[in-house]
Amino acid sequence: MSSEGSDVDFYYDDDDEMIVDDDEGSAISEDDMDGIDTYRDDYAAQPSSSKRKIYEVEFDTLPQEAVEGLIRKDVEYISSILGVETDAASLLLRHMNWNKEKLIERYMEDSAAQSAKAGIAPVEPPPAQIPPSSSRSSSSRSVKTSSAPKRVTRRTTAESALKAKALLTPEPSVEPESFLCPICCDDSQPKTLSLVCDHKFCADCWVHHLKNKIRVEGDYSIKCMASGCTLIATDSFVTSTLAEEPESVERYKELIVRSFVAANKALKFCPYPSCTYTVSCPNAATKSALTQMVPTVHCATESHKFCFGCPIESDHRPVICGVAKMWLKKCEDDSETANWIKSNTKECSKCQSTIEKNGGCNHMTCRKCKYEFCWVCMGPWSEHGTTWYSCNRFDEASGIEARDAQARSRASLERYLHYYNRWANHEQSAKLSADMYAKTEKKMEEMQITSNLSWIEVQFAKKAADELFKCRMTLKWTYAMAYYLQKDNEKEIFEANQSDLEQAVESLTELLESPIEAEDIPVLRQKMTDKTVYVQKRSEIMLEDTAKGFLENRWRWNVNVDGFEPATVLAD
Amino acid sequence: MAMESARMRRVKKEILDCRNDKSSNISIDMIDDNPYHLKGTFFGPEETAYEGGRYDVDIVVPESYPFQPVKMKFITKVYHPNISSASGAICLDILKDAWSPVLTLKSTLISLQSLLCSPEPNDPQDAEVAKHYMTSRESFNETARYWAQIYAGAPGKGGGDASAAGKEKEAAGLSESSRAIALAGLSEEHVNKFVDMGFGFSKVVETLSRLNYRGDNAKNITNERVVEKLLE
């Protein structure tokens, strides 16, 4: 891992979406990870490291409150460093996409400009005197930024008219009776609210505005309602205004948590619908780490399994993200075409052009090189003579030669299809055995009622089916990996392991599919339990050896893979 | 419930305010006595191709108004880069994310009026019109003016001839095909050149519009290219 330093630039050239690397990117991740490390001691939900296998990655599950705690910590840190209120610190951090270093640097350069951009202070000093209650925004005066709205020209007339109106209305001590809210046109609202810009609106309208932004638009940086005003509602303003709307406040907090998590490479939000957990996995936060492990993680809900490194599939062990991605891309591009070519064409034995025979006799003439040959034996037509149009010369030497040439040129296609078919087959089988198990389960339930077997006694098949599904997924991805592995001793060991696992899986499948009779159950149970344990063991060996191989840098690829040495022997 | 009455109160007030304000020359009326489905009307801004035209806008006030923007589209056909020449759909920031609850129906209509003054061809709603606008401004203005005359009732331009009678005479004098050519912003000479080659009239108009075969831009497009497109 330590030797990767010089390769960093190379990785970043990749268009991989996981690496969001702006100019200051490298600085934060380290610090953020520190924060999480210290934090983990207090909040670690699961001591997942206790019995960790080599192919498992260390990670923590954080409930939403825990991430809120992390955010609070950052906000307090910024607040103390920059000497601003926590509300302001929160807005500044959000504006800087939670990058503390960048924020401190920029804020030191020009605090007024940053405050204005973050929506803490008005862009233009308001004509009315700021009421003493908002004295904190002392930096707001004399602020000038260039962040003028893009299309001001179009609405200048309306806007300036409105602005004048909006700014004239608020006076620090407006009598409730005389206040006409410009939004709901109600003059009976007793309570008005405003941000430091002093654009007053009635409390009801503020509630509606915030609710609409949070619930409908999913926005957490909510601007003042006055047209053209760039001030953003602070956390305390939002929570106090929405005091009677706890659901909206919850959503608001979740939106902020999501933005924080998205900005932090060591954190990922659980991708399952309406799940609010965050997974922290600092070990898989860098791109170089992803060349050495497959970070399969899950949130507090065990079944919410996902890959921390990529969105390809929830668990693509044993193959690393980069190779899995490459394989899927190849499958998308090639499979259908390759299948068609394989079943419908042959190559000219001279120039290797792919030829489709779409009718006519076996006397073929290559369009490209004008070579004349027989479609059946692939030998030169000249040896057929001109009189007969059916080929009975299968064993002739020249025909064999031509077929050999063809075979060689097809080998790579065949090779790909070999791996692809097995890959696809395991996926298919996994689905089928899940269906099949559903039927078995039903049968077991019936048996439980008709015979004197207890519930626990008919559970053995469930365990077998679960294990099968898992192993089929592993096997599936071993084929993707094998396709790209360079042919050497390591690959042979890999394939031996793969073959052992495959045999074990197939025989367990057979067992699971065999008819079940009540009287056979004790025997079947014993057999199936034994087999399940064996499959488990084989799968363990497969995953462990591959993971170890990555750590020991044992695997050699037949293509260039990011983060590995260039391939020496390329695929045929 | 409170929300509903707030929306009603506000829309009523806006309609009333607009009626009392004679200076802006903008009117808002209900369609079918429905206070949430309105028709706004304003005149094309002076010294633009739209001058003198009367523009109707369909307004739908959504349930969460004024916290969500109103939905507006032109009823009157307009030749403008940010307005769909077919549907009247409008591309304007304040009708989307730049909306603010303090904006009103009237102020939004005023914004539409000023949109007519200052098109934003880099963010077009109607790509063909925008291309026309970008490549040959003079020809664009001519077409926009013609649309204003035909659809928005703007008086015909051209010195003292700008009387209603002159306009009628002009409109009556134009044949069906000349009218179609003018509406597409093309020249009769160009269209006839390809019609004479034996291509159908509507096909020629459609193809030349798509290629933006207008003004100076026509010089950049070879006859071969046009014929190729016509044969597609």
From TrEMBL, chain A:
Cross-referenced PROSITE patterns, in alphabetical order? TRIAD (PS51873)
Query: Its Enzyme Commission number?
Result: 2.3.2.31
Which UniProt keyword terms apply here?
A: Metal-binding, Repeat, Transferase, Ubl conjugation pathway, Zinc, Zinc-finger
Which species is the source of this protein?
Schizopora paradoxa
Q: Which InterPro entries match?
A: Ariadne, ARIH1-like_UBL, E3_UB_ligase_RBR, IBR_dom, TRIAD_supradom, Znf_C3HC4_RING-type, Znf_RING/FYVE/PHD
The GO terms describing molecular function are: ubiquitin protein ligase activity; zinc ion binding
Keyword Amino-acid biosynthesis in annotation: no
Biased composition annotated in UniProt, kind: Low complexity: 131-150
**UniProt cross-references to Gene3D superfamilies, sorted A to Z:** 1.20.120.1750, Zinc/RING finger domain, C3HC4 (zinc finger) (3.30.40.10)
Q: Which Pfam families match?
A: Ariadne, IBR, IBR_1, UBA_ARI1, zf-C3HC4
Q: Where is the RING-type domain?
A: 177-395
By what name is this protein known? RBR-type E3 ubiquitin transferase
Q: Which reaction does it catalyse?
A: [E2 ubiquitin-conjugating enzyme]-S-ubiquitinyl-L-cysteine + [acceptor protein]-L-lysine = [E2 ubiquitin-conjugating enzyme]-L-cysteine + [acceptor protein]-N(6)-ubiquitinyl-L-lysine
Q: What EC class does the entry list?
A: transferase
Automatic annotation (TrEMBL), chain B:
User: EC?
Assistant: 2.3.2.23
Which CDD domains does the annotation name?
A: UBA_II_E2_UBC1 (cd14311), UBCc_UBE2K (cd23800)
Q: Active site located where?
A: C91 (glycyl thioester intermediate)
Keyword terms, alphabetized: ATP-binding, Nucleotide-binding, Transferase, Ubl conjugation pathway
Which PANTHER family does the protein's record reference? Answer: UBIQUITIN-CONJUGATING ENZYME E2
The entry's family comment says: Belongs to the ubiquitin-conjugating enzyme family.
Protein known as = Ubiquitin-conjugating enzyme E2 1
**Species this chain originates from:** Schizopora paradoxa
